[in-house]
UniProtKB/TrEMBL annotation:
It comes from Neotabrizicola shimadae. GO terms for cellular component: cytosol. NCBIfam families: frr (TIGR00496). This is Ribosome-recycling factor. Responsible for the release of ribosomes from messenger RNA at the termination of protein biosynthesis. May increase the efficiency of translation by recycling ribosomes from one round of translation to another. InterPro entries: Ribosome_recyc_fac, Ribosome_recyc_fac_dom, RRF_sf. Keywords: Cytoplasm, Protein biosynthesis. The gene is frr. Belongs to the RRF family. Residues 23-185 form the Ribosome recycling factor domain. GO terms for molecular function: ribosomal large subunit binding. GO terms for biological process: cytoplasmic translational termination. Transmembrane segments: none annotated. HAMAP family: RRF.
């Protein structure tokens, strides 16, 4: 192998892992019929002149399997938090009691489960695209090095490394999607 060129596969793997991590965060926001504080993570509230996550405006608790509560610290923010939840597309109708917002989690019907499975598939496809874009970045680095000084054998070696990394991460995305789809469809 050439001493002059070495592709940073660790950096590529780290960035691909980041795409997987983002996918897991998006999956956590999908309701599966059970209450979870993580379902509120993507919801942002216009507070103090900037977009703020709900968990920075109050305490999120799950007192029952079908209930999430948010104890909002600033009374002035209660209506803004409530509006953000309504507008988030989670399909939850918040109920306010002073500074506590209660989110009763309704049972999912079959149609809603199928819709959520489609949303999960879209999230997975976004992750696959991100991973493929990182693959392209790696291949572009190899092409540039090949144009300068990299031999055909070394280029082939690095291309195989990048492809193996890509295949491994795409497989992990597919496994995560299959697991989440099964979880959503479970009654």
């Amino acid at each position: 192998m050439s001493d002059e060129f070495e592709l940073d596969t660790d950096d590529l793997a780290r960035r691909m892992d980041g795409a997987l991590s983002a996918l897991r965060t998006e999956f956590a926001s999908l309701r599966t019929g059970r209450a979870s504080g993580s379902m509120l993570e993507p919801v942002q509230v216009e507070a103090y002149g900037q977009m703020t996550p709900i968990n920075q405006l109050g305490t999120v608790n799950v007192p029952e399997p079908r209930m999430v509560t948010i104890n909002v610290w600033d009374k002035a923010m209660v209506s803004k938090v409530e509006k953000a939840i309504r507008d988030s597309g989670l399909g939850i109708n918040p109920q306010t009691n002073g500074t506590i917002i209660m989110l009763p989690i309704p049972e999912l019907n079959e149609q809603r489960r199928k819709e959520l499975t489609k949303v999960a598939a879209q999230y997975a496809e976004h992750a696959r695209v991100a991973i493929r874009n990182l693959r392209r970045d790696g291949m572009d680095q190899i092409k540039k090095a090949k144009a300068k000084h990299l031999s055909e054998d070394d280029a082939k070696f690095w291309e195989d490394e990048v492809q193996d990394l890509t295949d491994k991460h795409i497989k992990l995305v597919d496994q995560a999607l299959e697991s989440k789809s099964h979880e959503i469809m479970q009654v």
